[in-house]
Amino acid sequence: MEREEDVKIGANKFSEKNALGTGAQSDSKDYKEAPPAPLFEPGELKSWSFYRAGIAEFVATFLFLYITVLTVMGVNRSTSKCASVGIQGIAWAFGGMIFALVYCTAGISGGHINPAVTFGLFLARKLSLTRAVFYIIMQCLGAICGAGVVKGFEGNARFELFKGGANVVNPGYTKGDGLGAEIVGTFVLVYTVFSATDAKRNARDSHVPILAPLPIGFAVFLVHLATIPITGTGINPARSLGAAIIYNRDHAWDDHWIFWVGPFIGAALAALYHQIVIRAIPFKTRG
């Protein structure tokens, strides 16, 4: 039986205030490196907190797509960008929602809301393969539902006319440009996630866990400002998949691989950089 609905990270349990995927630490300020999560732990499948975390990821990604794609549609419907929130408003919608949703769900699921973030944390052994796969499935389902609700509001004709907020490589850019933008953009995001939620830093600076959602949201905002003109900014395979499935037109699917390959490469590079260069974990001597 679970005690206080602890959130599990692999074989270890931590109290609710410690977010999954952040290398949760004890109440003591003395930092101890958390052991790596196992690839598979059958006990998770019997834990309510496991399923509750997945539901939290579903709902958060649903709300993320609902707000952001609706914002994109509103900008596209305007006759003039001056009559709408424009590209800056779209970037703020994405960054602001990530800030709010990470804050809301960090203590339950870790507030990933993005398969690339989940993948990066999995590579760093912050969560099990079981949980990573479950999160990604729930994130994708939430994204599909969120985009579907937007289509219901907009109607088929308007939704298709304004391309449903789907990510594509824009005219004037090559697929290589789009792939590079997605790799670098996701690297910025996942690197920020690792830095903002680093357990060693949290143990030293008590204010960091409170502020963690803020730099993550700002990273999303800034990446969108830079890359909306190139790809519409994916950096989140669930967001790209949800919009593509509901829009469902050939030109969206032609470029769709970019919005999975790019973010996963960027996340892997960020995980390696943080673990090897920033934290130097493979080189630390063990007592």
Estimated helix fraction: 55-70%
Q: Per the principal axes of the C-alpha atoms, what is the gross shape?
A: globular
**DSSP, total strands:** 2
As a whole number of angstroms, the C-alpha radius of gyration is 19 Å
Instruction: Give the class from helix and strand content and strand pairing.
Output: mainly alpha
Distance between the termini: 34 Å
Strand fraction? under 5%
Overall mean pLDDT stands at 85
Placed side by side, the strands forming the largest sheet appear as: 1-2
- Low-pLDDT regions: 1-28
Strand and helix order: EEHHHHHHHHHHHH
What is the makeup of the main sheet?
2 strands, antiparallel
Number of helices: 12
Task: Give an account of the 3D structure.
With 287 residues, the chain is mainly alpha-helical. 62% of the residues lie in helices and 2% in strands. The chain has twelve helices and two strands, in the order ββαααααααααααα. The protein has helices at 48-77, 86-105, 115-123, 129-154, 156-161, 175-196, 199-204, 208-211, 213-231, 237-247, 250-254, 258-278, and strands at 7-9, 12-14. The chain has a two-stranded antiparallel sheet. Strand 1 (7-9) and strand 2 (12-14) form a beta hairpin. Helix 3 (115-123) packs across helix 6 (175-196) and helix 4 (129-154) crosses helix 10. The longest helix has 30 residues, at 48-77. The chain is globular, with a radius of gyration of 19 Å. Mean pLDDT is 85; it is low at 1-28.
